[in-house]
């Protein structure tokens, strides 16, 4: 079993491959390369592995501060969990859900998959869902930019696309919540219909995104970060070097690459850049990356979401026959779920405050923000939600080496212009992260797929 280390002073290392980033993508790349006989160094800016997966104990409660869920289509992740001997457990979902209608704010307790709206609105939601399912199946996740309709769909915002196909405002907002607030964590006017179709296709269909029992199916016992910890433990001692943000990457004229970080300089034949695109600009590339790369990176940005954790002495909502699941297009917390840990007698709720709503509450004092968020939880589940034993807000937007959540996406028009080039190697530099995935886009599954792909790309060049 390897030991993670922080080198006390800069030292020079020579490896076949250097990996920048010790999240799931970087560690999967390192694992595959090591299996093939390559020597590897992994440089990680943080004091931990896992990237946007992060499990921690907060005030005596185990919380998954980052990515956590596993869905049935995520075969790369599921296969790895089997290899690592890790078990999963289902998200609690017994009982009724709660829907809070916009404007009037009426609270509805309902069973089944459909929101409790009028028949006409329900029909429009179904029709929009069918349209998006058809587009996702037709365009796919692998090369959406290559489809004949790519430019058409990429130059109209998802908000405008919805309203051009439907004049029922509630239906448009109810459909939009699943991609805008629920996935890309950006306002629906800021990204394209093509980007929305990619998000849906990456999960198999738009219907899968709207089915919380599919997309939020299971969790890993011990937390999702434990997957990265297990991958790192398989590597030779001193492979993963923490607290080592990469400052400069130099591509040598005679071949190879030199990577300078705070605690190590690594000379290698190839490099895998396994951090999200919004962090590429934190690195100085010598010589500079090609113009097309610079342009592309300027059109990719992270979303913004607060992941709220509230832990109670018991899962009180279950006593009321509620699953803990709630949706509200106008609510501060647009989504709420039972997030109780495996074998835990206490009850945990997780909720999400996205994009412009997050902007608004970040302008408040911390105490006022907490009060408003808990009031939103109480709107769904009752006054007991106002007094958790443990309360915590995950804000990856303020984390130095993430700066947003959940993942990067293109601005309006960017996907069809640059998508075909996002994985193109630049000499010995190869790219890998969930932000660039097709299947599993924005998820750990996609990160693992991209790490494996980058490793195979290198092995194809060197064998």
Task: Explain this structure.
- The protein is α/β, with parallel strands linked by helices.
- It has three domains: 11-51 and 224-289 and 426-462, FAD/NAD(P)-binding domain; 55-72 and 87-93 and 215-220 and 304-398, Polyamine Oxidase, Chain A, domain 2 (Alpha-Beta Complex); 118-210, Guanine Nucleotide Dissociation Inhibitor, domain 1 (Orthogonal Bundle), CATH 1.10.405.10.
- The protein is 35% helix and 22% strand.
- It contains 16 helices and 24 strands.
- It has helices at 24-35, 75-84, 119-139, 150-154, 158-165, 169-184, 193-202, 206-210, 212-215, 225-234, 291-298, 316-319, 355-362, 366-381, 414-418, 444-462; strands at 11-14, 17-20, 40-43, 55-58, 61-64, 69-70, 88-90, 96-100, 107-110, 218-220, 240-241, 246-251, 257-261, 264-268, 270-273, 284-286, 300-302, 305-312, 322-327, 335-338, 347-354, 390-394, 408-410, 429-431.
- A seven-stranded mixed beta sheet has the order 9-8-19-20-21-18-22.
- A hairpin with a 7-residue loop joins β19 (322-327) and β20.
- The model has no long low-confidence stretch (mean pLDDT 96).
Brief characterization of the structure:
With 463 residues, the protein is α/β, with parallel strands linked by helices.
Question: What secondary-structure arrangement, pairings included, does this model have?
Answer:
Elements: E1 11-14, E2 17-20, H1 24-35, E3 40-43, E4 55-58, E5 61-64, E6 69-70, H2 75-84, E7 88-90, E8 96-100, E9 107-110, H3 119-139, H4 150-154, H5 158-165, H6 169-184, H7 193-202, H8 206-210, H9 212-215, E10 218-220, H10 225-234, E11 240-241, E12 246-251, E13 257-261, E14 264-268, E15 270-273, E16 284-286, H11 291-298, E17 300-302, E18 305-312, H12 316-319, E19 322-327, E20 335-338, E21 347-354, H13 355-362, H14 366-381, E22 390-394, E23 408-410, H15 414-418, E24 429-431, H16 444-462
Parallel strand pairs: 1-14, 2-3, 2-15, 3-11, 8-19, 12-16, 15-24
Antiparallel strand pairs: 4-5, 6-10, 7-10, 8-9, 12-13, 13-14, 17-23, 18-21, 18-22, 19-20, 20-21
Helix pairs in contact: 1-10, 1-16, 2-16, 3-6, 3-7, 5-6, 5-7
């Amino acid at each position: 079993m390897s030991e993670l280390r922080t080198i006390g002073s800069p030292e020079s290392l020579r490896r076949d491959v250097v990996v920048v980033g010790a999240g799931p993508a970087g560690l999967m790349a390192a694992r595959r390369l090591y299996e093939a006989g390559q020597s590897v160094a992994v440089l990680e800016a943080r004091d931990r592995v896992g990237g946007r997966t992060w499990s921690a104990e907060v005030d005596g409660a185990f919380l998954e501060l980052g990515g956590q869920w596993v869905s049935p289509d995520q075969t790369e992740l599921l296969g790895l969990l089997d290899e690592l001997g890790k078990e999963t457990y289902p998200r609690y979902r017994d009982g009724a859900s709660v829907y809070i209608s916009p404007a009037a704010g009426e609270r509805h307790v309902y069973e089944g998959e459909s929101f409790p709206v009028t028949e006409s609105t329900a029909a429009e939601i179904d029709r929009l869902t069918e349209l998006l399912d058809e587009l996702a199946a037709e365009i796919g996740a692998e090369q959406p930019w290559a489809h004949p309709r790519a430019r058409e769909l990429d130059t109209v915002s998802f908000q405008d696309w919805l309203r051009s196909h439907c004049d029922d405002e509630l239906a448009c907002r109810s459909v939009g919540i699943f991609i805008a607030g629920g996935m890309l964590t950006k306002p629906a006017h800021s990204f394209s219909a093509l980007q929305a179709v990619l998000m849906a296709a990456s999960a198999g269909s738009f219907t899968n995104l709207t089915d919380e029992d599919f997309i939020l199916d299971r969790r890993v016992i011990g937390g999702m970060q434990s997957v990265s910890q297990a991958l790192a433990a398989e590597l030779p001692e001193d492979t993963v070097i923490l607290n080592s943000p990469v400052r400069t990457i130099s591509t040598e004229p005679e071949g190879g690459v030199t990577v300078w970080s705070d605690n190590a300089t690594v000379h290698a034949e190839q490099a895998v850049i396994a951090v999200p695109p919004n962090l590429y600009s934190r690195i100085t590339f010598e010589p500079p990356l090609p113009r097309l790369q610079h342009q592309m990176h300027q059109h990719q940005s992270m979303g913004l979401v607060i992941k709220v954790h509230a832990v109670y002495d018991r899962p009180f909502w279950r006593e009321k026959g509620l699953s803990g699941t709630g949706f509200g297009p106008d609510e501060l917390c647009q989504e709420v779920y039972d997030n109780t840990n495996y074998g835990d007698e206490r009850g945990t709720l997780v909720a999400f405050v996205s994009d412009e709503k997050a902007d608004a509450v970040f302008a408040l004092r911390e105490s006022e923000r907490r009060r408003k968020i808990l009031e939103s939880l109480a709107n769904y589940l009752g006054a007991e939600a106002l007094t958790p034993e443990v309360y915590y807000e995950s804000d990856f937007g303020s984390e130095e080496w993430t700066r947003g959540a959940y993942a990067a996406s293109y601005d309006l028009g960017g996907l069809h212009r640059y998508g075909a080039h996002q994985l193109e190697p630049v000499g010995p530099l190869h790219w890998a992260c969930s932000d660039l995935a097709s299947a599993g886009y924005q998820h750990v599954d996609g990160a693992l797929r991209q790490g494996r792909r980058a490793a195979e790309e290198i092995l194809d060049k060197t064998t």
